[in-house]
């Protein structure tokens, strides 16, 4: 088992979950309607819980404990894609990001459920059942608002166009694609991406939204290698503020 | 069934009957289906395996420490309570007694399923108050990770369902 390759994979997934989980939690108290406030808060709780479990797998492979890893690193030590760190914007952007990201998550964890690394396969099997509720939620709203009023369609289309370069950044190749694939740990980003395109298109077909032509889009890469937007560090500072008051405190 | 001294796995299971889900205090952990194994080693060490309902469930640590309290109270010297994903929870593992308790508590029990959870399954909740099937799902997310929100068109009451997973 190539441990370096495995750790790289686990870090980027855990960081994605943690950062998007935190962004989702920023909707608590601000949702456009009560059910959406609860939905984004619940998805936040799921994602942060899932990140904790993935950090625990890393801990078993010799990395620091989950709290230290989550709260004590700086932005350039995070491996999340830039999509998840972007500010929530208005509801339309948060919804489109949630749709694009969770569709990829569902596919990723579906594949990982048969990973040759058994602890990851077991966790992925669990997580994919939970993500199902996230994609179900995203699909309902994208279908509904993507064919509702002129304003809702324009808003979602604008968000879709601006999120797409970042969404393609989810699938930035790691240094270890070959090793992960040959050892049966993970099917690789290209496989996830091609299934994702099919899935995203099939939902958009139920709406008046147009799939951007991805051939002409330059994906925003860098997140997987520690390159981030100016939005990540302030998020980390806020997220870790209480923890850093006294890292030895027992909760 | 292995026996060490006077304790059997069956007995431990009976003791655990008093440990309830902290968020649904009518439901024991046995009935919830999260106790996935009890083992007594030859040296007397008791191992209780538990599995979470949802990965991010904040009640899981409370349940684990409640189980530890019971074992301590029963004067078990050497024990370990493990949280594992080896045997995975799904909502079909809630017992008949547990399903009845949920309904009495005002929560629609999760429909039995063939492990394929889709939107149709989620949308057709039966109202726990009037048993009507004329209900609509308002949101797949509710006040806890394991609950969804519904409305009954028959008795005009909002209700929650324990989600199928």
For the record, what is the CATH homologous superfamily label of chain A? Answer: Ferritin, core subunit, four-helix bundle
* Anisotropy-based shape of chain B: elongated
The proportion of residues forming helix of chain B, as a percent range, comes to 10-25%
Q: Which stretches of chain A are low in confidence, meaning pLDDT under 50 for 5 or more residues running?
A: none
> Biggest sheet of chain B: strands, sense, closure?
4 strands, mixed
How would you characterize this protein structure?
Chain A has 251 residues and is mainly alpha-helical. Chain A has one domain (3-245): Ferritin, core subunit, four-helix bundle (Ferritin). Chain A is 65% helix and 0% strand. Chain A has helices at 3-25, 34-60, 66-71, 82-85, 91-112, 118-145, 150-168, 177-182, 189-204, 232-239, 241-245. In chain A, helix 5 (91-112) crosses helix 7 (150-168). The mean pLDDT of chain A is 96. Chain B has 165 residues and is α+β, with helices and mostly antiparallel strands. Chain B has two domains: 3-89, Fe-S cluster assembly (FSCA) (GMP Synthetase, Chain A, domain 3), CATH 3.30.300; 106-162, no CATH class. In chain B, 24% of the residues lie in helices and 27% in strands. Chain B is built from five helices and eleven strands; from the N terminus they run ββαββαββαβαβαβββ. The longest helix of chain B is centred in the middle third of the chain and has 14 residues, at 60-73. Chain B starts with a strand and ends with a strand. The A-B interface holds A 35-36, 38-39, 41-43, 45-50, 52-53, 122-123, 125-127, 129-130, 132-133, 136-137, 140 and B 52, 54-58, 85-86, 88, 90, 117, 119, 122, 138-143, 145, 149, 163, 165.
């Amino acid at each position: 088992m190539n441990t370096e390759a495995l750790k790289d994979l686990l870090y980027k997934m855990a960081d994605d979950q943690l950062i998007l989980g935190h962004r989702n939690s920023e909707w608590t108290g601000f949702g456009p309607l009560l059910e959406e406030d609860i939905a984004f808060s619940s998805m936040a709780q799921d994602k942060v819980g899932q990140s904790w479990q993935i950090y625990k797998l890393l801990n078993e492979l010799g990395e620091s404990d989950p709290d230290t890893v989550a709260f004590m690193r700086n932005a350039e030590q995070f491996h999340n894609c830039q999509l998840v760190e972007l500010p929530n914007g208005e509801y339309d952007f948060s919804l489109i990001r949630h749709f694009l990201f969770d569709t990829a998550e569902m596919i990723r964890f579906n594949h990982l459920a048969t990973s040759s690394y058994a602890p990851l396969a077991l966790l992925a099997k669990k997580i994919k059942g939970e993500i199902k509720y996230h994609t179900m939620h995203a699909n309902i709203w994208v279908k509904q608002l993507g064919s509702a009023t002129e304003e809702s369609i324009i808003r979602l289309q604008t968000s879709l166009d601006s999120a797409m370069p970042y969404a393609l950044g989810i699938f930035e190749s790691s240094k270890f694609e070959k090793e992960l694939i040959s050892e049966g740990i993970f099917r690789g980003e290209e496989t996830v991406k091609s299934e994702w395109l099919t899935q995203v298109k099939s939902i958009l077909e139920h709406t008046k939204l147009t799939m951007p032509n991805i051939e002409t889009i330059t994906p925003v890469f860098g997140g997987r290698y520690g390159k981030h937007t100016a939005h990540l560090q302030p998020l980390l500072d806020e997220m870790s503020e209480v923890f850093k008051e006294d890292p030895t405190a027992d909760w | 069934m292995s026996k060490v001294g006077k304790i059997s796995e069956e007995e431990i299971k009976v003791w655990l009957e008093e440990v309830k889900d902290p968020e649904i205090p009518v439901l024991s952990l046995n009935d919830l289906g999260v106790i996935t194994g009890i083992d007594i080693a030859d040296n007397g060490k008791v191992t209780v395996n538990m599995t979470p309902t949802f990965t991010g469930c904040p009640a899981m640590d409370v349940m684990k420490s409640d189980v530890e309290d019971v074992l301590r109270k029963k004067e078990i010297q050497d024990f370990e309570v493990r949280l594992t994903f080896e045997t995975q929870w799904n909502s079909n593992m809630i017992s008949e007694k547990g399903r009845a308790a949920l309904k009495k508590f005002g929560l629609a029990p999760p429909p039995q399923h063939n492990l394929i959870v889709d939107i149709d399954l989620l949308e057709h909740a039966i109202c726990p108050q009037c048993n009507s099937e004329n209900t609509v799902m308002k949101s797949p997310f509710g006040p806890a990770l394991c609950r969804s929100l519904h409305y009954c068109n028959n008795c005009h009451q909002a209700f929650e369902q324990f989600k199928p997973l």
